[in-house]
Amino acid sequence: MRAPLSWLREYVDLPAAVTGRDVAERLIAAGLEVETVERLGSDLTGPLVVGQVLAIEELTEFKKPIRYCRVDVGTANGTGEPQNIICGARNFREGDKVAVILPGGVLPGGFEITARKTYGKVSEGMICSVRELGIGDDHDGILVLPPEHEPGTDAIELLELVDEVLDISVNPDRGYCLSMRGLARETATAFGLPLRDPALLDVPEPNDAGYPAHVEDRTACDRLVVRTVSGLRPEAHAPLWLQRRLQKAGMRPISLAVDVTNYVMLEMGQPLHAYDRARLSGPIGVRRARAGEKLTTLDGAARALDPEDLVITDNSGPVGLAGVMGGADTEIADATEEPLVGQAEGTTEIVLEIAHFDPVSVARTARRHKLSSEAARRFERGVDPQAAAAAGQRAVDLLVLLAGGTADPGVTEVAAPAAARGIVIGADHPDRVAGVAYGRETVVRRLQEIGCDVAGTDELTVTPPSWRPDLTDPNDLAEEVIRLEGYEALPSTLPRPPAGRGLNARQRLHRRVGRALAGAGYVEALNYPFLGPGALDALGLPEGDAWRTTVRLVNPLSDEAPSLRTTLLPGLLDALRRNDGRGSHELALFETGLVFRPTGHEGAAIRLPVTARPTDEEIAALDAALPRQPRRVAAVLAGARERAGWWGAGRPADWADAIEAARTVAREAGVELSVENDQHAPWHPGRCAALYAEVAGEKTLVGHAGELHPRVIKALGLPARACAMEADLDLIAEAASGVPTAPPVSSFPPATQDVALVVDASVPAADVEAALRAGAGDLLESLRLFDVFTGEQLGAGRKSLAYALKFRAADRTLTAEEATAARESAVAAAVERTGAAQRGA
Amino acid sequence: MSAPNKSYDPVEVEALKPDVIERVRNEALAAIAAADSLDALNEVKVAHAGDRSPLALANREIGALPPHAKAAAGKLVGQSRGAVNKALAARREELEAERDERVLVEEAVDVTLPHDRAPAGARHPLTTLAERIEDIFVAMGYEVAEGPEVEAEWFNFDALNIGPDHPTRSTHDTFFVEGGKPGEESGLVLRTQTSPVQIRSMLDREPPVYVICPGRVFRTDELDATHTPVFHQVELLAIDKGLTMADLKGTLDHMVQALFGEGMSTRLRPDYFPFTEPSAEMDMVCFRCRGESVGNPDRPCRTCSSEGWIELGGCGVVNPRVLVACGIDPEVYSGFAFGFGIERMLMFRHNVADMRDMIEGDVRFTRPFGMEI
Fold this sequence. Notes:
The structure holds 2 protein chains of 2 kinds. Chain A is an alpha+beta fold. Chain A contains 21 helices and 44 strands. Chain A has a 7-stranded mixed beta sheet with strand order 30-33-34-40-39-38-37, with helices on both faces. The radius of gyration of chain A is 42 Å and the shape is elongated.
């Protein structure tokens, strides 16, 4: 809402020294969002006067036609002689009144006017366009003024070029502030000054002589006022002051009837609609639209109506979308001049519809038709239902005054009785909400200032004014008191929460995992969770893969990505490729985040009440409708894991790094992963590890790691040999071992024995290790694979695994015989379980 | 090796004459002093203190002396050998020190050589900033609460007093999840705020409730320099007996002081949110110019556009209707809540010019944040 300061002053006697900025500061403190204060004409200097074009000499010798005008500027130039002025515009004729700036004047933007020679003539000033005057953007021609103003009149004052305009963003609960009336009330309260309420008008009693109307849906339209004016001069136009107020408020003057309804809407906050009576057939009705009905609105759009749309009708059917926009067929006619008789023709009789509509109904219709209008904006936020009669009267008065019409005595009003809205609060309720002792007297005074009726002593019965439909609850009233007393006056105190327990284990794990991966050289990336079939195809997922069953969005950002992710990899791999494309080639990225897995139990929407706590069963039903949303962790790698440098050769990232990333994650939870060879998209079938952990006593698959499938790498344009890991962090958290038990630390020396075992190449090292551990017995302290060897001497399809076994006893130094016996037992187990042969044996 | 004397010779042995011993000793000492390397010293040792050195030989002759002469000869030879050995040890120590010094010089390296063998990792600044904020409140006794990202509309809207016709409940602002059957409404959305976690926290706990809820939220904005459809919020909720707006103000003041340093404060401006009443917009003093750029064109501040304040987010007293929907008696309990976007805070705290940098996962953007303590 744009509010000119000059207009505000009409309702509040602000001291002359008060500036727009002063008003803005007070309004901001009272809770209005004043976005800007425009200072119109602050750099404008006269003389800028009304001129009358006496004669036009067309100069044709230039590239474009130029006019050399003699302009009467009265005595503004000191001589009384006409000024000679060059003008490039053509939208005026001899006799027209125009705005002329004389030499010595300065136009907005610091444009100084001097008498100067141009197009072979001396131009003594300039005829101004709307844009040059800072009124609007129109630069198609010069501004032609209404004929009634005398040449020489100061146009700065006439056009009200110097003013300040506050641009205020109005919150949805403060509909009344979409009017000068409401803003004036806030200004008056903020300055402690009285308000002249423009809605306090004498209005004739409703009677039966008015234009016939009937309201079918009294809930959606609880008040309808119809007024009529006849005998209007069709050529009458809005006076400059009215046009200027509309312009400053951000609206374009159109025609008198439309300008008047807009003006009254801006003043009172009550939207009105004017119909050309000649184009209206029969009574005005308010009802829901019928299936199949159509309406062409004022914006020229033909709209199919929905049975939920509230419409204004006449005998022909719908003539307007109630509270949103009128229909084109009953539009006020533009005044046209009959060329033979020189007489204007157009609308001479007007029917004014002033109604109060249900905010929700208007909002739904506006949204349904994607049609936002000034009227709809106001109805959605709540219009004062008591203002309709006054607004109608104001519009009638203006039409009579400005177009010589007659107010018809008939006044139609259809009104549903308003419910009483008393709110009971303790007189200290605002004090208890704010934590400030305002006292009863202040509370009552502040509530009265905003228009409430207040009764009672310790317990107050507060009846909010009709223009504040937002005031329904005790806290609404508390807010009014607190904001008027000033939020800045609130003290700063600290509550004392009960002693806390810090982060829980899951939260600690999430942090540890992030730190551990960052410590291991991984950079965290946070990717959007949207994906589409293309991304899943690129991963080479087979039909029916669990990752292909997605939660889909009704309104995705992109049709290519209509689903929520089931895996973190597409986002991370995108980031990997983006980084690679931008010249970073040694890449290790990770992400932790939720993925979304349909449960298959999603049903129709569950609607629960908000008037009491839902039952535990109801809450459980809501939760059951949610997809599963496990937290996962993923890492991707490409390029060098270790760079080459002065220290020697580097090492490319490989499948083992991806597995190690998973182990790094698991280690943070104290979980030992077991690894098995697997074949799983999107991984390389020969370089893919399935990762298992023991969850609640059961060996559970928690993820996969390895090198990506070459086809996936190609499809996604990734660097060769890119590797990836993804695992379920929730499962790993569940597998967490809890409080570790301290092991005994022996101070006796260890005995180390090496063993090399030859096995079939297909035997997993993990199996050999498990066999050795099982066979070695309690004396085994640690075991480490230190070499893997293949070669001709072993035979094709064989490999040699070399282990260092470290034995130690808790209570003695082991003898060589004991260590050897343990080693032999370990080897025996490996031989038995994996078919291993001891090398060199 | 020479054989020991086989016969007893009463005559004085030539090698044991004191002047001879004296000469041999002096020769030895001179040779030791003259040894200029450990190798040379080893040779000197063999020649002058080895088994076949004159003094060793002399020592061997002592046994052949008559008993009365043995003591004097033994003393003479012993003293000489002692002196030689001592000189040897001293010289060895000198030479070893010299050698060590030389080796250390030889082993010197250029320690300015870069050691960037393994590229550095880093956590995302949004994560670490969220943790930083969590830690402030955890230290005060708050719990960290989390919730699902696909959320029931009841949690995201209804329970928060956002009625079915509120404009935000349209595809214009909110991502809706498809229902089980095509065209069917699911009643599920991508949460548009972290506030549903407030509701879950109140349903899960008996008051008092003090929780901080960080998380990812979704709105249907197109990605540009200052908007992203997926972003992070931190939400705080406190429910207890007698909580007031003053407590909200104090909590906010504490947070900005903890995050941005002593002397920081906040300002509340009235605003409207369905889930709080009264509601406020919260600003903090510009941590960079501390308000000194206001009306001071010589010292403009880009962080706050010389306004002196930075807009943080929304807050207010929890609307009693929200308490009722969660089964908390608003006659007994009251509370406050606030929420703000972490991306925005990251932007002004670290001069991030373009929000896209936080989303694209470019390692060049993220790495420098890995080292903030």
